[in-house]
Amino acid sequence: MSVLELKQKIEALSPKRLIAFDVDGTLVELTENPNLTTVPEDLLASLRKLGGREGYCVAIVTGRDEKALRRMLDFSGLWVAVEHGGLLFAPDGQHNEEQLSRDDAQRLTAFENWAQLELKRDGVELERKRTGRGVHVRKLARDDAALAALILEKARHKAVQLGLHPREGRMMFEADALQHNKAAGLESIFQKLGATSVVYLGDDITDFPALEKAMELDGLGVFISSDERSEGPGNAILQSVSEVHQLITALLE
C-alpha cells in the first residue's frame, strides 16, 4: 500500500482518530545498541503537531520502560504506554504503577546475574528494565547468526526455568516478571480518549497483539515490513521507517 493510499484510508476513518506508534523499528530504525537510540526533535515535533490537529490524537505504545523512553524523547503531553502496555501515562503525567513482588524481583535478579556470566560477550547487549531484562544480539548476528540464535534460545530456556515470561522480538529476547501485551495498552488509551477510530503502526512480533486489536476495533493495523520480518498481521503495510515519516508528513499537509 502506498503512503498516499494509507493517508486516504486514515482520513476516511471517523474522528476522533487515535494514531498509535511503536518506537523501535517504526518511528526510528533499530540499532545495534538500543541504549543509544534517540527520536529526532523534528519527528517529535511533527507527532505533537499531528496530535494537536482536530480529529486526531497521537500515542506511543512501546516495550521500552519509562526510563529508557525518556532517554529517547520527551513524551510529556502525549499518551504513552510503556513496558508493552503494563504502565500507562496520561498527557499530564499521571500514571498507575504496578509493583513487582519480592519473588518477581528475585527472579529478575537471578536472570540478570546468569546472563552477565553466560551471555555477556562482544555483540550482545543486556538491557535492564523495571519489570524485565532484555538480551539484544543484533551486532553479534551480523557476524555469527547461528551463535546469536543460540544465545537467544539459551536466554529463553533460562527465563522459563526461572518462572519468568518469555517475549521474543527482532534480534532480541526479553524475560519479563509481569505479563503484558501492547493490545491492552492500546485499548486502554482508546477507551480513555473516547476515540471513535484507531490506527496502530508496528513492526515486530511484540506488536502483533496491538495490530490485531486495531483491526478488531474496525481500525487499521499497519505493519512495517523489514528484511528481518517481512510479514505480519495488519490490513495495511508500509515498507520502511522512512515511509512512516512520509505518512506523518502527508497527514499534516
Structure summary:
The protein has 9 helices and 11 strands. It is an alpha/beta fold.
Tell me the radius of gyration.
18 Å
- Lateral strand order in the biggest sheet: 4-3-2-1-9-10-11
Measure the end-to-end span. Answer: 19 Å
- How many helices? 9
Shape: globular
Uncertain spans: none
**Topology, number of strands:** 11
Structural class: alpha/beta
Strand content: 15-25%
What is the H/E order?
A: HEHEHEEHEEHHEEHEHEEH
Largest pleated sheet = 7 strands, mixed
Provide mean pLDDT, rounded.
Answer: 93
- Helical content stands at 40-55%
Question: Which SSEs are present, and which pair or pack?
Answer:
Elements: H1 3-12, E1 17-21, H2 41-51, E2 56-61, H3 66-72, E3 79-82, E4 87-89, H4 102-118, E5 125-128, E6 132-136, H5 138-143, H6 145-162, E7 165-169, E8 172-176, H7 182-193, E9 197-202, H8 208-216, E10 220-224, E11 236-238, H9 241-252
Parallel strand pairs: 1-2, 1-9, 2-3, 9-10, 10-11
Antiparallel strand pairs: 3-4, 5-6, 6-8, 7-8
Please describe what this structure looks like:
The protein has 253 residues and is α/β, with parallel strands linked by helices. The chain contains nine helices and eleven strands. The chain has helices spanning 3-12, 41-51, 66-72, 102-118, 138-143, 145-162, 182-193, 208-216, 241-252; strands at residues 17-21, 56-61, 79-82, 87-89, 125-128, 132-136, 165-169, 172-176, 197-202, 220-224, 236-238. The strands form two sheets. The protein has a seven-stranded mixed β-sheet, with helices on both faces. A four-stranded antiparallel β-sheet has the order 5-6-8-7, with helices on one face. Helix 4 (102-118) packs antiparallel against helix 6 and helix 7 runs parallel beside helix 8 (208-216). The longest helix is centred in the middle third of the chain and has 18 residues, at 145-162.
